[in-house]
């Protein structure tokens, strides 16, 4: 692992600079594995922060980028358009919940969320409700690292308490507690808590933001579709827009194409990124209903939506997103995801030794996502190195040891990952 070069000037994310070791250098990959300089190959249990849903070097995605690169790599979307942007927008309208008919592109999940928040605030402004300029978020939420997003991340456990003085203040509702398969009655307490915050704050609230069904980076909290239905009703009652951040959950992660599909709910605004391009290029889409879009149709200069990232609608990104969607639909990804879910449930949920292990607080599975929640962050110290010795790339978040594999992960590889996750607690 020693490198002949001087230390790299690359500043790594979320890294403790004093204790970090040189990052392994990745030279390539294929399917669910990537390869390091020197030949070591690791099975990626995280599919690179959950975005490489088709795995590495997928021939169709690589070919789509190559082809598009020969035609048009980039052109501004200000006043111009191109075929991949138009076609992808149509496809996203087709696959997302009915009613999301308008697509605003940007270049990352965080910016996609910034767009959603600005859209919600300006929507109320244009309707003569400028007092509705705050956002309601949930505890345990994670919506990105830009300032607007940090302000709606969990204010206590989130990574961003350091910046509290710099950020706008928004109200928070408690994180939902009823699990995915809870009966409707069991969700009532969560919805009562949400109602209470809305009753107190609705006059100043533009939108309720949530990661539907899976609060991902905030601790893989898996919640009920009934909560989404109840939230939809409360938002209508209190004239608050509902924003689904499906940056992590979109494109199959929860077992359906979108988390919203489990509840048959259409949010007013929905944000997609991570899996959108199959992870091959950074891009995001913020979708809106006619109701939101049409509020921006008007005569005053204030009616323009004042946002426009340089790389929005980038042709390479749109083209590879189209190919990603085609692969998803043509190669039975729902079936692949259901297969991974079966392995995760059997290997992790049904393991009594794991469930009763003193260091384990909880084990949860939803779609192609599984987490072993440790009681204490110290219980996971060294797990990454240990897994690597067994050929698996695991990178826990805090006390959450999780997997969100590429959907092309074979059953034997999925078992390899669950064996290593379990082995950390049971077989050392
Ligand atoms: C990753 C993530 C984001 C931020 O996306 P970036 O592309 O990293 O800016 C926002 N919301 C959720 C739910 C995410 O998981």
- The main sheet orders its strands as 4-12-11-10-7-5-6
Order of helices and strands: EEEHHHEHEHEHEEEHEHEEHHHHEEHEEH
How is the biggest beta sheet arranged? 7 strands, mixed
Question: Kindly state the mean pLDDT as a whole number?
Answer: 96
Poorly predicted runs:
none
Structural class: alpha/beta
For the secondary structure, the number of strands is 16
- Level of helix content? 25-40%
What distance lies between the first and last C-alpha atoms, to the nearest angstrom?
24 Å
Number of domains: 2
Let me know the CATH homologous superfamily of the largest domain.
Answer: Type I PLP-dependent aspartate aminotransferase-like (Major domain)
Description:
- With about 425 residues, this protein is an alpha/beta fold.
- It folds into two domains: about 65-330, 3-Layer(aba) Sandwich (Aspartate Aminotransferase, domain 2), CATH 3.40.640.10; about 330-425, Aspartate Aminotransferase, domain 1, CATH 3.90.1150.10.
- The chain is about 35% helix and about 15% strand.
- It contains 14 helices and 16 strands.
- Strands 4-12-11-10-7-5-6 form a seven-stranded mixed beta sheet, sandwiched between helices. It has a four-stranded mixed beta sheet with strand order 1-2-3-15. It has a three-stranded antiparallel beta sheet with strand order 13-14-16, with helices on one face.
- The chain is globular, with a radius of gyration of 22 Å.
- The structure holds pyridoxal-5'-phosphate.
- Pyridoxal-5'-phosphate (PLP) binds next to helix 4.
Helix and strand layout, with pairings?
Layout: E1 26-30, E2 33-36, E3 41-44, H1 47-50, H2 59-71, H3 83-95, E4 100-106, H4 109-126, E5 134-138, H5 147-150, E6 172-173, H6 184-201, E7 205-210, E8 214-215, E9 221-222, H7 225-237, E10 241-245, H8 259-263, E11 269-272, E12 284-289, H9 290-294, H10 315-330, H11 333-349, H12 352-355, E13 360-366, E14 369-374, H13 383-389, E15 392-393, E16 400-403, H14 411-426
Parallel strand pairs: 3-15, 5-6, 5-7, 7-10, 10-11
Antiparallel strand pairs: 1-2, 2-3, 4-12, 8-9, 11-12, 13-14, 14-16
The structure holds pyridoxal-5'-phosphate.
The site of pyridoxal-5'-phosphate has 15 residues, from helix 4.
């Amino acid at each position: 692992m020693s490198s002949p070069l001087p230390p790299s000037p690359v500043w790594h994310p979320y890294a403790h600079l004093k204790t970090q070791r040189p990052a392994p250098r990745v030279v390539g990959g294929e399917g669910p594995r990537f390869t390091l300089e020197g030949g070591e190959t690791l099975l990626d249990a995280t599919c690179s922060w959950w975005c490489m849903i088709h795995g590495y070097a997928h021939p169709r995605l690589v070919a789509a980028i190559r082809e598009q690169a020969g035609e048009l790599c980039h052109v501004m979307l200000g006043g111009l358009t191109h075929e991949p942007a138009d076609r992808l927008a149509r496809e996203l309208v087709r696959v997302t919940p009915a009613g999301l008919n308008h697509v605003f592109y940007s270049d990352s999940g965080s910016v996609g969320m910034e767009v959603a928040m600005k859209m919600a605030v300006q929507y109320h402004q244009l309707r003569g409700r400028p007092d509705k300029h705050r956002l309601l978020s949930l505890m345990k939420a994670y919506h990105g690292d830009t300032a607007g997003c940090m302000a709606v991340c969990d204010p206590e456990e989130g990574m961003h308490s350091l910046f509290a003085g710099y950020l706008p203040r928004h109200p928070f509702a408690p994180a939902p507690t009823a699990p995915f398969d809870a009966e409707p009655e069991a969700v009532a307490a969560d919805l009562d808590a949400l109602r209470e915050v809305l009753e107190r704050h609705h006059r100043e609230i533009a939108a309720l933001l949530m990661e539907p069904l899976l609060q991902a980076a905030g601790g893989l909290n898996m919640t009920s579709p009934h909560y989404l239905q109840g939230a939809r009703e409360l938002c209508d009652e209190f004239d608050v827009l509902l924003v689904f951040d499906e940056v992590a959950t979109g494109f199959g992660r929860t077992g359906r194409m979108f988390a919203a599909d489990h509840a048959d709910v259409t949010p007013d605004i929905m944000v997609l990124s991570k899996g959108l391009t199959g992870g091959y290029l950074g891009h995001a889409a913020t979708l809106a209903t006619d109701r939101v879009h049409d509020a921006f149709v008007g005569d005053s200069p204030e009616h323009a939506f004042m946002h426009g990232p340089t790389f929005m609608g980038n042709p390479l990104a749109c083209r590879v997103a189209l190919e990603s969607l085609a692969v998803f639909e043509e190669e039975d990804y729902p079936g692949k995801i259901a297969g991974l879910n079966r392995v995760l449930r059997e290997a992790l949920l049904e393991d009594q030794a794991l469930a009763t292990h003193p260091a384990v607080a909880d084990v949860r599975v939803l779609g192609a996502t599984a987490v072993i929640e440790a009681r204490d962050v110290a219980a996971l110290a060294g797990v990454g190195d240990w897994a690597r010795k067994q050929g698996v790339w695991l990178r826990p978040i805090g006390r959450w040891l999780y997997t969100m594999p590429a959907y092309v992960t074979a059953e034997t590889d999925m078992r390899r990952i669950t064996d290593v996750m379990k082995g950390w607690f049971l077989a050392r």
